[in-house]
């Protein structure tokens, strides 16, 4: 079974975060929601109270296949301030392991130098923060082990792409039909 860690913080965009968790879990991917705030209780960008499974600092990343950064403000800067989050993204990217980010969060990857020369996307308001990337205005962009999406409007295709990467195309197709996503 594949395993993914989703980093959540205060101010995380809840739909981007929970939709990814939901579709990955439907695909039987083990998902750990890891808090970047030093506590498990979090408040999303729209005031929804969430509880993480673990603190980012306490997760064993040795058998994790993918890390995911949802967007949201101030969630994205909160993720960027957590050394475990940033160090894990760097180590995963350098090891060829999967790293994914949506909305404003690809800017965190860019600030770490992980998008240098890579095709990527982000929310229109953050595309200018993708220094070194070849920026595309598309729902989902995959370049090697890095997957990015432009925001909540791309959350379903983004999550389905992550399912495709971790559980295979047949499972992604099955889930797409099951949730009646026809695009």
Please describe what this structure looks like.
It holds the Pfam family DJ-1_PfpI. InterPro entries: Class_I_gatase-like (IPR029062), DJ-1 (IPR006287), DJ-1/PfpI (IPR002818), Prot/Nucl_acid_deglycase (IPR050325). Residues 3-165 form the DJ-1/PfpI domain. It comes from Faecalibacterium butyricigenerans. Helix 5 packs antiparallel against helix 6. This protein has helices at residues 14-26, 75-80, 83-94, 106-111, 155-167, 169-178, and strands at residues 3-8, 30-35, 41-43, 49-51, 54-55, 66-69, 98-102, 119-120, 134-135, 140-143, 146-149. The protein has 183 residues and is α/β, with parallel strands linked by helices. 33% of the residues lie in helices and 22% in strands. The protein is globular.
Layout of secondary structure:
Elements: E1 3-8, H1 14-26, E2 30-35, E3 41-43, E4 49-51, E5 54-55, E6 66-69, H2 75-80, H3 83-94, E7 98-102, H4 106-111, E8 119-120, E9 134-135, E10 140-143, E11 146-149, H5 155-167, H6 169-178
Parallel strand pairs: 1-2, 1-6, 2-5, 6-7, 7-11, 8-9
Antiparallel strand pairs: 3-4, 10-11
Helix pairs in contact: 1-5, 5-6
């Amino acid at each position: 079974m594949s395993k993914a860690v989703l980093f959540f913080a205060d101010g995380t965009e809840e739909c981007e975060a929970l939709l990814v968790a939901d579709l990955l879990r439907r695909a039987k991917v083990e998902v750990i929601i890891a808090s970047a705030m030093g506590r498990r209780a979090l408040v999303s960008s729209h005031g929804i109270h969430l509880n993480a499974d673990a603190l980012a600092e306490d997760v064993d990343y040795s058998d994790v296949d993918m890390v995911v950064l949802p967007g949201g403000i101030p969630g994205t800067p909160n993720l960027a301030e957590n050394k475990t989050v940033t160090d894990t993204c760097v180590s995963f990217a350098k090891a060829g392991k999967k790293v994914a980010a949506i909305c404003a969060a690809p800017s965190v990857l860019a600030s770490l130098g992980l998008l240098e020369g890579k095709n990527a996307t982000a929310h229109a308001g953050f595309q200018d923060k993708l220094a070194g990337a070849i920026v595309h205005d598309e729902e989902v962009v995959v370049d090697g082990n890095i997957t990015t999406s432009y925001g909540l409007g791309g959350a379903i295709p983004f999550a389905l792409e992550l399912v495709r990467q971790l559980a295979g195309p047949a499972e992604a197709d099955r889930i797409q039909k099951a949730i009646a996503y026809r695009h």
